[in-house]
């Protein structure tokens, strides 16, 4: 072993440091995105407790950076790092699965950059990762949007605040959240079955290491970018819908059907609230849940306007471009 090898930090230490830096940067950015897309802002009048009409009094946030300012103003740095613990644990678990269960050569970037095993192999890999990550994604989204202040170490109290008694007794019911799996699966299929083959067809040089910019046809690149931008018009609403459905809790009992919410007694009343005076975001009434993918899209358009489906669409576009060209 040379002196340079002995003085170099272990790969595990480098990976740990890189993961810590990544979490420090992306957890606040992701949390702001989730809150911005989850914020319920109906455009019409609402019924009050006596059956009369009243204007909506919840927070109105029109931009991603406006949500960033609101989170910091009401909850400070602690609010920006809501969801840190489940994100860290899920990242660690998925990394272990990729390292030991998947035959990959080095790290890959992007949500659906699977091993090069063909379209069907990539689709299978993506669905396996979806099944593994879905419960942790639900818990992460709920920990970000909950008005409660959750302990980083008291897992039991955190789960009591985030999950209904039914979900704690039967955790597999998270996979049956109305419309959520359909939204995520459709998102995967569009990327793996459409954008992936299209990129390899029009821009084969991007799949080869060491490809020079001159190897890429500018005409084909423009065609791909135009089609990709059109695809974002579908992907962005799916991400907004998936966010809304992930934070919608499930309950099944004699007095409620399988998609109704637990209205009373589903959270620990002793859990402290994060905001001193008001909540960062408004959440939809749990007594009237979305019934599925199409129902969620229709209600968002009817209640909040179709532009709600395109909140932070530019993040979807930048993320897709990063996955395609990095």
TrEMBL record:
InterPro entries: MCP_dom_sf, MCP_transmembrane, SLC25A32-like
Keywords, sorted A to Z: Membrane, Repeat, Transmembrane, Transmembrane helix, Transport
Keyword Membrane: yes
Keyword Transmembrane: yes
Gene Ontology, cellular component aspect: membrane
Solcar repeats: 10-108
Location in or out of the cell: Membrane
Topological category with respect to the lipid bilayer: Multi-pass membrane protein
SUPFAM superfamilies linked to this entry: Mitochondrial carrier
Chief location category: membrane
GO BP terms in the entry: nucleotide transport; transmembrane transport
Bilayer-spanning residue ranges: 12-34, 80-102, 122-141, 172-196, 216-241
Family as reported in the entry's similarity comment: Belongs to the mitochondrial carrier (TC 2.A.29) family.
PANTHER family named in the record: MITOCHONDRIAL NICOTINAMIDE ADENINE DINUCLEOTIDE TRANSPORTER 1-RELATED-RELATED
Name of protein: Mitochondrial carrier
Taxonomic source organism: Psilocybe cyanescens
């Amino acid at each position: 072993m040379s002196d340079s090898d002995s003085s170099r930090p272990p790969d595990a230490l480098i990976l740990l440091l890189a993961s810590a830096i990544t979490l420090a940067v992306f957890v606040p950015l992701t949390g702001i995105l989730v809150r911005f897309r989850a914020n319920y802002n109906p455009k019409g009048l609402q019924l009050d407790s006596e059956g009369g009409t009243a204007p909506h009094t919840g927070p109105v946030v029109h931009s991603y950076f406006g949500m960033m300012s609101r989170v910091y103003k009401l909850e400070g740095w602690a609010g920006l790092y809501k969801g840190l613990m489940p994100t860290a644990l899920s990242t660690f678990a998925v990394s272990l699965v990729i390292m030991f269960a998947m035959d990959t050569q080095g790290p890959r970037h992007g949500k659906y950059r699977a091993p090069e095993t063909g379209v069907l192999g990539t689709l299978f890999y993506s669905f396996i990762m979806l099944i593994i990550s879905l419960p942790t994604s639900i818990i992460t989204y709920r920990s970000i949007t909950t008005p409660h202040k959750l302990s980083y170490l008291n897992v039991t109290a955190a789960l009591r605040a985030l999950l209904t008694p039914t979900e704690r007794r039967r955790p597999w019911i998270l996979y049956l959240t109305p419309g959520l799996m359909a939204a995520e699966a459709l998102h995967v299929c569009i990327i793996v079955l459409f954008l992936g083959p299209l990129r390899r067809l029009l821009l084969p040089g991007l799949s080869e290491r060491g490809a020079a910019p001159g190897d890429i046809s500018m005409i084909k690149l423009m065609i791909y970018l135009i089609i990709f931008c059109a695809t974002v018009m579908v992907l962005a609403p799916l991400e907004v819908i998936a966010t809304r459905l992930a934070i919608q809790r499930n309950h099944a009992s004699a007095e409620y059907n399988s998609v109704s919410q637990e209205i009373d007694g589903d959270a620990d009343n002793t859990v402290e609230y994060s905001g001193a005076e008001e909540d960062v975001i408004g959440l939809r009434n749990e007594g009237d849940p979305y019934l599925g993918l199409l129902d969620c899209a229709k209600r968002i358009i009817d209640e909040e306007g179709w532009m709600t489906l395109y909140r932070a669409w530019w993040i979807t576009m930048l993320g897709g471009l990063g996955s395609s060209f990095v």
